[in-house]
Design goal:
Radius of gyration: 25 Å
Mean pLDDT: 94
Helix content: 25-40%
Shape: globular
Number of helices: 28
Strand content: 15-25%
């Protein structure tokens, strides 16, 4: 889709490398310009070289100013910014680069967004997790770092969205611009469904995934952990059947969906009862029984253990280099429509002005793809059944994935409802859905059927495991994907039970990958005239979030990192430590910091000069010393030795949502909801130097735009009245 593009990567660290890898896998030619003094991130990330060399990327070192100017003059995209390291200077002069290259689209990965001028701490994942409050988003009694580098993955995904939108806009206007996001906003990407401030709250608006969660993760008789999910029509009844639980109070239509009134321990299900019955059976017995009833469940596997599963192989998400080393490949499956049509012309104040999207998605992953498109200027129509999107019961999660859309409720079990749905599709540029496999085809809106109606359509489907393959019919949810792909094992820590991440990060990754795929397809269509069928299985999103894994030719994994036993970090050099009055995050990078820590703790012989050789005794020594100091004392003492420190802040939600400058920076969006008054929530989290982005539209109530949309389709008032009376539309 991007075969005609040339990209210059001048960024530093993980996020720019992941972005460059993604663009190369979409066909772009990527040139890596190494920093003058070398790139220290090769020593931090074992997969760094694989990312930079993906799909034949070229690397150039010792580039002179004249050579760089020539490269940029012939490029389409330049990536700058990223992480900090004391041994190199982060390239972040995006405005100057754009001034000298007006047709260039420049993506700048900042440390923090505008409005946080008082915060100028180093851009390191563990420090940004602490500053953003992300470390306090799981337990109430103590902080814990998220185990998937949320700042880097978040910034990479957001950055790709902005970059591709700017490229599409450039295809229409002929002008480049600077696009910016930040690692801080990358961190906040994962709390979009948790953070929200409502003027007139009610039970639904206050309802949020509880802290200190008790997910349905249980140890079976054979010692294997499995994760089950109860939720959806009749699922509790069927799950109880699978587990041989006899409870007459559970009816055949009982969904078991969490309710705001449930106590935190039993929020997802009756923990003690379920644990008792699951402990009696082996994991294979249980999983086979649960799957036979069409319910979601998966074993908790170590990172990389799922790679050889037939479905993962079928999806083609694992790639092998020329050296035989396997790594995470491209998560998007794409196929161009057969007939190219005229190139689209247009443009407007926003990057996606004039683009229309029809969204059939439910829950999170499907709808979140199109909510970002709405942020970028697209008109989005949400189509939902008369019963509504099941996620409407959780307002914070629902508004995060549906703000900015118009809403129509259709009974697609009726022929008239299917006809209206297809008419809406014919009026659109992009169609998105995340039905279970086969449902879209039965409704007449599968990609192949849509391309018969309108070949230039971009059709995105986001199934759980894939539209084909041995697991295509299996129910997929974020929770079981975290288990299968290795995230729960990794987050649990050494010798501990698994931990599910309450931010539902696989769901949001799936949504952002959907945005990225549709934007790449939009650019390709504007350039070539071809429509596109895209598929992004949720399991691919879970695999993608462990892109740092490498498997050697001996079938061993180089980087199965797991949080330590105390769940404070992966390595003593970048971890959380408790003080007398709180917690701090510490990042020891570079020889000066290592030497400073060594002298401070009197551990010269233990520490040496290579942090890779440090063991848990170093962490114990650091923890013992830091525990004597207050947060203020620890910060001053450590920083004086060249060690980077950040306080683990709590209650950052209100600081961000109420911050006077954050709305202007696109970090926060405000709208006025007809039921709940003023709503403040996380917004587009991208900035464009020339294009406008963002909006002030709320997540509509069910069917709020039904009449208006039917009129736009040419339906008369009498016909609309009849459709409403026949409950085809609501």
């Amino acid at each position: 889709m991007l075969a005609d593009l040339t990209v210059i990567n001048m960024g530093s660290g993980m996020a720019p490398a992941l972005i460059a890898k993604f663009l190369a896998e979409l066909g772009a030619s990527v040139i890596r310009v190494e920093p003058p003094d070398g790139d220290p991130f090769h020593d931090i990330y074992p997969a760094y070289g694989a990312w930079l060399g993906a799909a034949g990327n070229a690397t150039q070192s010792g580039v002179t100013g004249e050579q760089l100017a020539s490269l940029l003059a012939n490029a389409d995209v330049c990536i700058t910014g990223g992480e900090d390291h004391p041994d190199m200077t982060r390239c972040s002069d995006a405005a100057s680069l754009q001034q000298h290259n007006s047709g260039l689209v420049i993506l700048d990965i900042e440390a923090y967004p505008p409005g946080m001028d008082s915060c100028c701490g180093p851009a390191v994942d563990i420090l940004l997790q602490a500053r953003s409050g992300l470390v306090w988003e799981h337990f109430t009694g103590r902080p814990i770092p998220m185990s998937f580098s949320p700042t880097n993955y978040g910034a990479a995904l957001r950055g790709l969205c902005g970059l591709l939108a700017a490229l599409y806009e450039r295809e229409l206007s002929g002008r480049g611009q600077v696009v910016a996001t930040s690692l801080f906003e990358g961190a906040l990407t994962w709390v979009a469904g948790l953070w929200c401030d409502v003027a007139d709250p009610g039970p639904g608006t206050n309802f949020v995934m509880p802290m200190d969660p008790y997910p349905l993760v249980f140890r079976c008789a054979d010692g294997v952990y499995i994760h089950i999910v109860i939720g959806g029509a009749g699922s509790k009844y069927r799950m109880y059947q699978a587990l041989d639980i006899d409870d007459p109070s559970v009816t055949p239509d009982d969904s078991g969906m969490p309710k705001p009134t449930d106590d935190p321990k039993n929020f997802f299900g009756e923990i003690d009862l379920l644990a008792e019955h699951i402990a009696k059976k082996t994991s294979r017995e249980l999983l086979d029984g649960i799957w036979s009833l069409g319910l979601p469940a998966e074993p908790v596997l170590a990172p990389g253990a799922c790679w050889d599963l037939p479905q993962i192989q079928h999806n083609g998400v694992i790639a092998e280099g020329e050296d035989g080393v396997r790594h995470v490949g491209h998560p998007i499956v794409s196929k161009a429509s057969a007939v190219p049509l005229n190139k689209r012309t247009g443009g407007g104040e926003q990057p996606l002005s004039g683009v229309r999207v029809v969204d059939f998605g439910a829950f999170v992953a499907g709808p979140f793809a199109s909510v970002v498109l709405a942020d970028l200027g697209a008109e989005v129509v949400k189509v939902e059944p008369l019963s509504g999107d099941p996620n409407r019961s959780i307002f914070r999660s629902h508004t995060a994935s549906n703000r900015g859309k118009r809403a129509i409720s259709l009974n697609m079990k009726e022929p008239d409802g299917i006809e209206i749905a297809r008419e809406l599709c014919c009026s659109a540029d992009i169609i998105t859905s995340n039905f279970r496999t086969g449902v879209a085809g039965r409704l007449g809106i599968a990609a192949a059927q849509l391309h018969e109606l309108k070949p230039e359509l971009i059709a995105l489907e986001s199934p759980g495991y894939g539209s084909s393959g041995p697991l295509a019919e299996r129910a997929g949810f974020d929770m079981v994907m975290q288990a299968l792909c290795g995230h729960e094992f990794r987050a649990g820590g050494k010798a501990n039970e698994p931990i599910w991440n309450r931010t539902s990060m696989v769901d949001y990754t799936g949504g952002l990958l959907g945005t990225i795929g549709t934007l790449a397809a939009l650019y390709h269509r504007a350039h070539s005239g071809y429509g596109m069928a895209l598929e992004i299985p949720l399991v691919n999103a879970g695999v993608y979030l462990l892109s740092e894994l490498l498997q050697t030719t001996e079938a061993e994994f180089d980087n199965i990192m797991q949080l330590n036993a105390t769940r404070t970090g992966f390595h003593p050099a970048e971890a959380l430590y408790q003080t007398t009055d709180g917690w701090i995050a510490v990042a020891v990078r570079g020889e000066k910091a290592v030497a400073g820590l060594s002298s401070l703790l009197g551990l010269a012989e233990v520490l040496g000069h290579d942090p890779e050789q440090w063991d848990e005794s170093v962490a114990d020594g650091m923890a013992e010393r830091i525990a004597r100091w207050s947060t203020e004392e620890a910060t001053g003492i450590l920083e004086a030795k060249g060690i980077w420190v950040e306080e683990c802040r709590r209650n950052v939600e209100q600081e961000v949502l109420q911050g006077p400058d954050f709305e202007k920076a696109g970090l926060v969006q405000t709208s006025v909801h007809p039921l709940f008054g003023k709503v403040r929530e996380l917004g587009v989290m991208m900035r464009f130097s020339r294009s406008e982005v963002g909006h002030h539209r709320y997540a509509q109530v069910p069917g709020e735009s039904s009449r208006q949309l039917l009129k736009e389709l040419g339906k008369s008032e009498d016909r609309i009245a009849a459709l409403l009376e026949q409950t085809v539309v609501a």
